Structure formats: structure tokens, C-alpha cells
Amino acid sequence: MLTAFARAFRTPDLRKKLLFTLFIILVFRLGSVFPTPNVNVKVLKDTADAAKESNQLYGLVDLFSGGALLKLSIFALGIMPYITASIILQLLTVVIPRLEALKKEGQSGTTKITQYTRYLTVGLAILQATGIVAMASTGQLFQGVSGGDEVLYEKGLFPIIVMVITMVAGTTVIMWLGELVTDRGVGNGMSILIFTQVVAVFPAQFWSIYKTKNGFVFALVILVGLAIMAGVVFVEQAQRRIPVQYAKRMVGRRMYGGTSTYIPLKVNQAGIIPIIFASSLLYLPVLATQLWPNTKWLQKVQPYLQQDNAWHMGIYFVLIIFFTYFYVAITFNPTEVADNMKKYGGFIPGIRPGRPTAEYLDYVLTRITTPGALYLGLVSLVPMVAFALLKATQEFPFGGASILIVVGVGLDTVKQIESQLQQRNYEGFLR
Amino acid sequence: MGLRDRFRRLVQKPGTVDLAPFQAVVADAGTREDRVRELTDDELTAGAFVDDLAEFCAIGREAARRTLGERPYDVQLVGMLALLSGHVAEMATGEGKTLAGALAAAGYALRGERVHVMSVNDYLARRDAEWMGPLYRMLGVSTGWVGQASTPDERRAAYAADVTYAPVSEIGFDLLRDRLVTDPADAVLPEPAVALIDEADSVLVDEAMVPLVLAGATELAEADPRYADLVRRLRPGLHHAVDTEARNVTLTAAGTREVERALGVDLYAAENLAVLTAVNVALHAEVLLHRDVDYIVRDGAVKLISESRGRVALLQRWPDGLQAAVEAKEALAASPSGEILDSVTVQELIGRYPARCGMTGTAMAVSGQLTEFYGLEIAVIPPNEPCVRRDDPDLLYATSADKEVAIVEEIAAAHATGRPVLIGTADVAESERLARRLARAGLDRVVLNAKNDAEEAAIIAEAGAPGAITVSTQMAGRGTDIRLGGGPPGSVPGTAPASAGASARDRVAAAGGLLVIGTGRYHSSRLDDQLRGRAGRQGDPGGSVFFTSLQDDLVTRFAPDETYKGPTEPDGRIDDKGARWIVGHAQRVAEGVDLELHRNTWRYNHLIGLQRRELLVERTAVLQGDHADRMMAEDAPDRHAALVEAAGADAVADAARQILLYHLDRCWADHLAFLADLREGIHLRSLGRGLDPLVEFNREAVPAGKRLLPDARARAVTAFRALTASASGIDLDAAELKRPSATWTYLVHDNPFGSLDERALKGLISMFGRRH
User: Fold this and answer.
1) Which of A203, A198, A220 lies closest to A386 in space, CA to CA?
2) Whole domain around residue A127: which residue ranges?
3) Is residue A426 over pLDDT 50?
């Protein structure tokens, strides 16, 4: 793989793309640490550190904003508004017939939908920026931490508006950066930026483990972490191939036919979504205890909601398994796949097209999802177990959603580079 | 240029090429006109240089005036300058694109470069080459033209000229054939220099949708008539079902049982793949390919009709056994079937030319594609006379029957006032149906379609005569110039001055000029605009109107989910915004599908092109040198020495060359077949999360391509070892070098299998959504 990278850097236009992507990442990181006007940086840093010590939630926020949010930087909102907007529009495309029709019109329609996504991103950014700046000015952002209401120098209307405009502008710039990467760099811009956000906090977390524990624990964490990562890469790549034959062209059948036409079913066909569903669902009661701290029965439930509680872990695990099956069921419709194959003259040898094919696909899919679901559950438990074992104050970097994001985007990007190489390989070969 | 235009150019909006420098040159040329007019013909020929553009403009204008009797307008010269600087010039119909293009071609030729003027069909290539011939002669430039029926010698002579007119497909097929020659002297194409593309949007976009494919006959494979009989007995609906887009037909469960009962086999067992394929292909030929729509039967043979041109495509066939199945269906004798030997995309073909430019009436609609795939910018040339054509909004009807009645009424009404009418229909069958209706209504009409394309020039010449009614297919939709009042008999089709028809012209103009009627929107708005452009040339009066219905093929195929439930008028007309939107939507969907097809052709053929180039380097070395001989001496030294002793060094070198060439071509054809197989089911890969079909395709294609040269070498050496020699020479028969006895081209455009896996892929992606 290293040779592949070296070769990529030797190919002129590919090198240009890679350097461009790295440059965009650099700009993105710079903007993430560059504070918005009117922020008292010193006070903010102390309060944020104290808040992260006292409440796990702030660590999580830090993780998913690349540390930008708690720094109230110009890129505080990160890529999230853009991702949210595109998810919302994707859902709306299913619901609103006019949007669906637009999508069918191909590129010209998609361009319009992209334009709507951008507008929606700006709208969402205005909402979020207003909320965050308002919370920062009233001190709600860091509840219960001393100095939480002193992070801004001035709390007048004008400085607040300037801050909001700055953050919204920052978000639009991020959106643009993402699109630039997609157009002129390597990989999907949105994924690359999310990857950057997640990875950005890793060094700080390692450092804190090193500081609070000894060197041996640190080395052990790194080793175990790398082992987990290797395991995740392995399972993410694993697939079951169902052979398919096409019977619409009369050609002299050749020996190699059949081996290259197949339906690849991944062991982890669901990706990261089940973890996000499960953790969001479990987060609801946590939110409730914070909103209504005085309610009797919520107080009783509270201990079970701690990350290191065995009940919490168990429920989390079961939820992930459930959502994995659920998600695979809604995204992979065996009937539709079977119909599609039938339409273009394809069939699985020995199995009739139509319903028998759909049933067969369903059978294989159900069986392969079992190890996939167990794997997702185990990986997502890693940070919690580590938390319990190490008594760490920060999020454990090797596990859960973050490692799946990192490995997923990493694999995708490497594949993209490899594919770009394959597209050019021959020119290099000729010279 | 206004501030707004400057800004548009700054942000690289298409069509913002600055014309001011060109206009300045043309103004300069205007001041030299009187002086140039005094020159003798010889002085004019001698003075034709391109170093001074203004002087060249003046001389070109004078040469055109003397030879063609036509003085190019300033805008034509501006268009020519845009062409000379490598742009696509958008010029409205009737503005004299042909003349501007000819002057530009002469300009390039005078710079010492060989120009290929590419057009969409034989008719235009030949017409333009002959019509512009005198002009070229006066400027001291030689010309030639190539058509589908040209012989290799004619082609070689034509390509040797300074300027060669040829359909783009012929140039592509010549390239493909040149790549397969076994003797360097057999090649016909010279080194590419300048490509000047007429009807650029059609050539670069419509024709570029699918690769040009060269096939060779290896054996006579006959489709079993049993299958044709079998599928004929099946009942539509019960035994087989056609999808909404009318592009695919499948056996139902009942149909499968019926076929299995008749044949006595299990259709879906892996070992019966050949039987199932034969049934599927026969079914496709029976149900989806219609006589007089997709093909005509002439002289006992099936002739394909090109959808985008509306013409018979000589030497084109359906691939993969479909041709034989159609022949079995029509109970005709089977023609040889073969395999794909090589293919080339239009992008690749045009990309070979260091200098490219083009002209068309409808470039802006495809500006994105021209830039994306060819790096061409558009210069919008203003018309000489403002266009006064009246484009009426579409008349929308609920049913096809209502629409057809209304069309006949409209034609009758226009005819009564003495207006000439040109009707553009979708296919041969529709043109004939409409002609019969008109005959029943007592209207005298002329039909122009693929069946009588020989009379094209004469029909077009009279289409503008008072009261003429011309029913045509796509054929008349592009490139033809219809003069009001009709042309003088025997004149060159095109734009010779029509002095005899002057009074007729005035009569027609007074009646409102040519009326163009479209019997339905085409699958791209550009084709609509081209048809409209037949009227209103050079500021003439004229009008155009399209009749559409919600039962049109376009609507039912591309917008099957949209329904209209509003009111209709007693005559079936619908005047409703929503209903109009459906028709427009269907057309936009069709355009989107085509764009996707074009892009996928490009993406999937890019790697194949690179692999081909690598192989060609090797092949050229073998063809022109002693590469093969040295290779054999190296890999099979004893055999080589023995053969040299028996037959002489030259004979051995020649045998080695022939053997290696054969196996290189053989390996390449096998490789293409493998890639075609791979491509067919590659969309299924998108079912695995995070798998991109194109990446998966390349992942398999690259290693396969890497094996090509070693494989060919190994096979050639094996064959070489088996050679026997006598004093009279080497017996090559033992090596079984079966060269294809005939070559032809596949019309893959209408290949429903090739294009639809892409649509399936799109469907799957939208079905599963994008995931991050």
C-alpha cells in the first residue's frame, strides 16, 4: 500500500489532487482553531477544560466537532449542518413528488437539489449559530462550571450578531471546501472533512492518557487500539459473493464468465448507522435527566445510564443488533433486486428469477447479517469497556462510531486513490 | 461588451467567448473589399495566405463571391475566425455555416495543416464537399469526401487531400480498420491534424453516446428458427411482460413453464444458459423490435434505421445474436455473425486531433458536455438578420388519436393559404401513417424517410415551394436548407441563388413562409430546435409548432409515473400548466439519461483506451519492424534457426510478424469480450455497501490488461513452434490465422442491453440512497 502512495505521488496530476486535498484539510483545521470575534479565549479554554473534566458529554461534543465547537471558532459548526441538510433533502426527495421528479431528470435536476441543500445548510447554520452564541452569552453552554458566563467580552446585540454572521459564513466556507475536495481532490469532500474532525482530537486524547496513566498503559492502549483497527479493516472488507449469470447476449461463452459477475453482500452491510441510531436512542433518557433533574423516577434511572454500567452496555448492545437488522432490511430489498435482475436477464444459476431469487437473497442476507450485527455491537462497546477499565476521563479513541468513521473514510479514500492510479497506470507503464 | 458580459466571462459562464477581436478583423477586411475585387482569379489564388487574417477574410469573401455567387456576410467571417481560433461557433440555421466552415477549413489548410471536416452523414459530407469545391479550388486547396460506400482506394485518395469531408463514423471506422491492418500499406488515415466538426452537438454528443464498434465475421451462426416460432406462439401479458419503458421483455412464470414444456429443459440450470439466452434474444426480436420503426426489410435483408438520424445505416447490425434473431423472425437468410474486434469512442477519436473546432445551431444546450469531454468553448455568433420565425407554444392533446386529427387539420389549413409545410415525425412508420391520413384528406404530399433516401436532395429542393407538404423523419431535421419558393430544377442542393423562383418566393413569404410541424417532442430539446430551425432562415418569415400528447412515446417511456387528471376540451386539447410540465419533464428525464449514458461511456472506456494505446505501440513496432522475428529468435531459437534454414530469413520474419499480429488482435478481441461480460453485471457491485462499480470494473480490468502482451507473446511462440517449412516457403495454414472475412460495424446505440445496466445502476443507487 505504501508503494501505491509513493506511485500516487509520482503521478503528476494525482499528486496535484492529493496536495490540494491536504491543503484544504489544512485550511479547515486553521479555521477550526481561529476564534470568532468577541470571544475571551483564555477564559473559554479554562471553562471548556473544566467542563470536559466534569461531564462526558462535552468530550463527545468535542470529538464530533473536531474541538472547534468548544473553541467557538469561525468553523465552530463544522461540516454537520451540510451533512444534516443533505440527509434532510434526501429524505424529502422520497416524500415530495416534485423533488423526486427533479431527481429523475438527472444531472440538471441534481444540480438544483444541490442548490436547495446549500440554502438549507445556511438556514440550519443560522439556527445553530444563534443557539450556540446565545447559550455562550448566557452561560448555558457550560452549565455549572465557574466562569461559564464570562466567555464573551460583550453581550450586546451587535457583537452577538457579528458572531452569528461569522459562524454562518464559516459554515458556508466549509461547505465550499467540501465541494472543492469532491471536484478537484481525492475522495468525497464531506467524508474527508468529517474524518478530519474526528481524527483532529486523537492526539489530545493520547496525550491525556499518557499524562494521567503511565507509559506502559499508554503503549498497551496503542497496541490494543491498532489490533482493533486491523480487525475493523478486516471485517469491513469481508463480503459474500453470490454468482449471477446474464442470458441476453448470444456470444461464445468463455471460461472466465461467471466468476466476475456477482452480488457482493458485505458482512457489515449496515455501516455505521445502527450505532448512531442506538446511541441517539439511549441519549434521550440522559437528556431527560438533565432537563428535569428533580423528577423522582428519573433520578432512580440515572445510575443505569452511566457509560460504565453493565445494564447500559447490555441494552446498547441489543439495540445495535436490532438496528443492524432493521437497517439492512430497509436498505436491501431482495424483491427489488430480484426484479431488477430479472428485467435485465440475470439469474442466480439454479434458482428461478422472481420470488425464488428474492427468497434466496433474503436467506443469505439474514445469515450474513448475524456476524455483522455482533461485530458492530462489540466494536461499539470497546470505548465503554475501556472507560470502565482505565477510568479514563476522556473518550477512548479506538472504538465505537469514531473508529468506524475513520476506517470507513480511510478505506474509501485509499480505494479512490488506487482507482485513480488504475486509470493512469498504463500511461506510466508506457514511458 | 457590457459589464455583465465581462463578469459572466470572468466566472467562466459558457458561450462568453469575446467576439470583439474577430469583429475588428472583419471590419478591417471590409475596407479591403474594393481592392481585392480588382484582382484576377490567379492573383486571388496566389494571395491566399493566412498570415494576415483581415487579408484572408477579404480574399475568402471575394473567392466565395466569384465561385459560389455568394458574398459571405460579416457574421459568417466572424464565425470563420472563431473556428480558426479553435472554438465551437453557434450560428443559427440558414446563416451559412457550411460556407463559414469551408473558409475556416481552407484557412487551416493554407497554414499547412490537413483538415477533416466531420459531419453527421454521407449526404451532408458529399453535398458540402461538392458544393464548396470551386471555392477551395480558387483558394488553391484540394478536397475530397468519404462516404459509407467508398472503397479503400477512394478513401486513401480523399484523405490525401488538404480538406476531407467525411461522416464522423466513417473516420472512426477507418481508424479501427487501420488498427487491424497486417501490411503498413493498407492503412488509409493520415496523421490527424485538424478536426472541424459540422453539427458539433450531434457529432460530439449524440453520436458519442456509445462507442464505434468494429466486428469481424468468423463463422456463419444461424439463429435456430425453432426459437422464433416458439416465441411467436407466446401470448403477450400472459407469457411475457414488457417493462414501462418498452425496453425490456421478460418471460413470466407461466411463460417459463410454457417454454420449458416445449423444449423439455430446465431453463435456469447453469448448463442451459445457451438455451435461455436464445429464447431471450428471440423474444426481444419478436416483441421489442418493430419493422419500419427499428428496421426495414429491403432486398431480402434487414436494414437498421439509426434513431438519431432517421437514416438507414449501411453495414450496421445488432450485436450479440440479435441480428440473427431478427432475420429468423422475418424468415430471411442468415447473414454472417461475428465478434467485436475493436472499439473507439468519439471522445478518443476527436482527442487524437491536436486542433479541434466546430459549428452548430444548438451548442449552448450542451455547453457543459463540450467543455467536460472535449475542452471546447462556445462562441455565440449573432445572426445576420434577426430571426422573425414564430414559435408557437406546444399544442397538447390527451390522446394520440386526437393529436393526429388536429395535425391533419392544421396542415390542411396552412396548405389552403399556399404555405409550404414540413412535418417532422419520430419514425418511418409514423411518417407513413401520417402520409396515408393526408392522402385520405385529399392532400398531395411527399414523404422523405429512410426508405427513399436517394431522392433526398430533390425532395428538399422542392419542400419550400408554394403549398408543398413534406412529411419527413429525423432525416430533414438537420443540415438541410429549405429555400422559400423552391429551388430551380437541377441546381446544387443547398443555397444557389433562386432567381427563377423569385415570384414563388414572394408568394410563399406573403403567406407566412415555411411552417414546421413537429408531431411530438424528440428526446432532446436540441432536436426540437433543429427542426424548428428549418424555417425562418436569413430573416425569412416562418413558423413552427409542436403537437404533443400524453400518450407520446416520450411521455410514456420517461415519465410513466406522472398522470394528468384535469379537464380536456371537446377536441381533446389540454391547456394546463401541470400537463405541459409533464411533457417537459419527460424530455428532461430523457436528456438526463442520455447525459449519463455519455458520461458512462466515457468513464468506462477511458481505461480501455489506455490499454489499447499500449497494445498499439507494440503492434506498430511489430508491423513496421523486425520485432516479431527477434522475439521468436529469442524464445524459440532452435525452431527459428531450422525454419530460416528451410525457407530463408525473410519468409520467417514475415511469418513471425503475421503470427504475432494475429495473436495480438486475437488477445485484444478476447479482452474486449471479457470486459463486455464484466460490464454487463458490474452494476450489481453497487449492492455491496461502499462499492463503486467503476472502481470495481477498473480493479478487474487492469490486471486483465496487464496479461495481454505476455499472453499474446506466449500464444505466438506456441504457434511459431508448430510451423512447418518447405523450400517453397512457410506453411502458415497450420497456425490457423483465421482473419475475419468481412468487417462491419455494430449499432450499439440501440443496444438495449448495453445502455440499460447503467439505468439499472442508477435505479439501484437511488433505491439504496447515498451512504457515508
Assistant:
1) A220
2) 1-200
3) no
A272 shares a domain with A188? no
If asked whether residues A100 and A224 sit together in one domain, one would say no
List, for residues B538-597, the tens digit of each pLDDT value: 788 889 999 999 988 888 888 888 888 888 888 888 888 888 999 999 999 888 888 887
Do B262 and B162 share a structural domain?
A: no
Chain A partners within 8 Å of B769 (Cβ): 90, 331
Same domain, A174 and A54: yes
The residue written with cell numbers 467571417 in the block is: B77
Count of structural domains within chain A: 2
Coil, helix or strand at residue B391? strand
Can you read off the three cell numbers belonging to residue A64? Answer: 464530533
| Same domain as B138, residue B76 | yes
| CA-CA-CA-CA dihedral for A274, A276, A281, A282, to nearest 10 | 110
CATH of the domain at B244: 3.90.1440.10
- Spatial distance between the Cα atoms of B210 and B756, rounded to a whole number of angstroms: 12
Whether B703 and chain A come into contact, CB under 8 Å, resolves to no
Q: What is the pTM of this model?
A: 0.82
With CA atoms as reference, report the closest residue to A7 among A413, A431, A422: A422
Residue-range definition of the domain harbouring residue B397 = 390-489+502-575
ipTM of the complex: 0.82
3-class DSSP assignment, residue B457: helix
| Residue pair A148/A175 in contact by the 8 Å Cβ criterion | no
Write out the three cell numbers for B65.
463571391
B261 touches chain A (CB under 8 A): no
Q: Give the closest-approach CA distance of B340 to chain A in angstroms.
A: 10
Is there a single domain that holds both residue A338 and residue A240?
Answer: yes
**Which range in A142-146, B173-177, B501-505 is most confidently predicted, on average pLDDT?**
B173-177
Nearest to B302 by CA among B282, B330, B336, B279: B330
Contacts of B673 in chain A (CB under 8 A): 251-252, 254
